[in-house]
Amino acid sequence: MSLYSSLSKSITGRVSVSLVAALLCTFCSLVETTAQPRRRVALTNRSAVVVDERLAVLRDGPELSARLLQRMSRGRVVLILGAKRSSDGLTFYRVAVTRRTGGWLQSEAIVSPGRSGDDERLLKLIRGSEDFDRVVRARIFLDLFPRSPARPQVLLIYAEAAEAAATRLSRDAARRLNEREMAAGGAPLFSYFLNYNGLDRYRRQGIIFTFNRASKQFHYDGESWREILRRYPRSPEALEARKRLDALAAVVGVR
């Protein structure tokens, strides 16, 4: 039975405010934040995460013509309360955003662990994304679908995006950090690089960079490649993960 059908049959009455509040409090902290590092939260089959902010318009009804209440940011967690087809064939979910805020979201804006095929749909979106967008959506996948058969593919994409970011960050840091000013500051040179503010948003996505002091280059620390080798040693991705770790070891001595 599809999530749409089951929701339509099971969510027929009013959902108590206390239940909504309790469930939302469990996982609302997955929302992207610029103040705190990201942390794992418990998600249920009724929770969903915004992955396509272009479609994430919270409305007061299940129609594209319905009044806009707010635009939802990527990474925002909502609680699914019901579902309905619009007059033009789209599926909308009735969602709770906070204890007092709710509305209707187009189904393609979100993914849910309780919706069959959402892992594959998100994988397709990740592959169509670039740069930091790819990192964020891959991180959402890894948190939301721990048992998906596509997980090794996403781990590899996540790691490759992180290493590509390391190249860009190395270039940016070299341009923005003034060596004379750093020398005058008295702290070790490498510490200025590892405190570079361009790293911050990647750290919030669980990415850690190492730093080669001789070449003044950042590199992804390789944790996703290690996970592939630990958990999926016979997967097609394992061979590539081993190559990447060997290359990393040659550059920074990390395995």
Tell me about this structure.
The protein is an alpha+beta fold. It has two domains: 114 residues, SH3 type barrels (Roll), CATH 2.30.30.40; 134 residues. The chain contains ten helices and nine strands. It has a five-stranded antiparallel beta sheet. β5 and β6 form a beta hairpin. It is globular. It starts with a helix and ends with a helix. The N terminus is likely disordered.
Briefly say what this structure is.
The chain has 255 residues and is of the alpha+beta class.
Based on the model shown, name its key terms.
alpha+beta, 2 domains
Gap between N and C termini: 45 Å
Order of SSEs: HHEEEEEEEHHHHHHEEHH
> Given the C-alpha coordinates, what overall shape results?
globular
Number of self-contained structural domains: 2
What value does the average pLDDT take? 86
Q: Assign a percent range to the helix content.
A: 40-55%
Q: Rg, please?
A: 21 Å
Strand content bin: 15-25%
The biggest sheet amounts to: 5 strands, antiparallel
**pLDDT under 50 segments (min length 5)?**
1-39
Count of strand segments: 9
Tally of DSSP helical segments: 10
The SS-based structural class is alpha+beta
Largest sheet, spatial ordering of strands: 6-5-4-1-7
